[in-house]
Write a structure and sequence with these properties.
about 55% helix, about 120 residues, alpha+beta, single chain, 3 strands, 6 helices, Arc Repressor Mutant, subunit A
Length: about 120
């Protein structure tokens, strides 16, 4: 079994932002962003992947596949969708791709939902 990647090895943390400003949480732009994030979480497997990554260190795709009853290609597609939405970050190390949660985007999602 492959070892769990360290967060810094997989997805170096960028500068963390503080809590989103209230102006950024309202209006048409905020509505579009919330819709985009909600669509990315619109499948139970993607919700499970986000939960898995938010509770653990960075994981390589094969580790995620090992925890889901889905084919590798299906998991890869779900990861691609989450990555495009900004919920997941990745880093390639040779043939292995490590994935981790983007906590800044997750915090923004929580804030956007909280003010509905």
């Amino acid at each position: 079994m492959e070892e769990i990647l360290e967060g810094s090895a997989c997805c170096p943390l960028g500068e963390s932002t503080t809590a989103p400003e209230i102006q950024a949480l309202e209006g048409a732009g905020a509505d579009e962003e919330l819709a985009k994030l909600a669509k990315a979480l619109g499948h139970p497997a993607r919700v499970r992947i986000v939960r898995m990554l938010s509770r653990k260190e960075a994981r390589v795709c094969s580790q995620i596949v090992g925890e889901l009853p889905l084919a590798q290609s299906t998991v890869s597609e779900h990861l691609r969708i989450l990555k495009e939405a900004g919920l997941v970050r990745s880093s390639q190390d040779g043939p292995r791709v490590g994935y981790c949660i983007n906590f800044d985007t997750l915090r923004k999602l929580k804030a956007l939902v909280a003010i509905i």
